[in-house]
From TrEMBL:
Residues 5-94 form the DUF7707 domain. Residues 92-137 are annotated as: Disordered. Residues 100-135 have a biased composition (Low complexity). It comes from the Eukaryota. InterPro entries: DUF7707. It comes from Metarhizium guizhouense (strain ARSEF 977). This is PCI domain-containing protein. PANTHER family: ANCHORED CELL WALL PROTEIN 11, ANCHORED CELL WALL PROTEIN 11-RELATED.
Amino acid sequence: MTPAATWCQGQTNTCRVLCNADASVNECTESDLKWKCTCTSNSSTPGIQYYRQTMPFYICQEVFKKCIAQNAGNAQGQDTCNNNIQPLCATNDPPKSPVADSGSDGSSSTGTTGASQPSKTSGGSTQVTSTSSKGLAGPTLAPVGNGAFVAAMGLMAYLL
């Protein structure tokens, strides 16, 4: 199996798990490493960039390896790679299996222990906050965004 095939397989496997085995789009092209992952439940992309075995992870690792190789014999240059690129690469393993749905319709209800309580504000009014969910895109470790990936690509371009 070629590295590109391995990368695409990891990407599509992780997309499937993060979308709870229900992705409306789960594609990866070996020739150009382009990928798409969209969960059916909310038509959004899960936080792919926070997990290993995804295209952003593989590309970030490759950028890091190239930086280290380009700075062979240069401790300061390699320190820059270690401090500025490696931290941008995902460190979390994807879940081993899709997250189980806790309800038949994807909704959940909470009792008194999990309900939001009103809080006083300085103006004397009461503010009530509550949240509900109906089938999200799966577990993510931070808000969805491509900042780390974009930063790594920008740094690679700068180093070249």
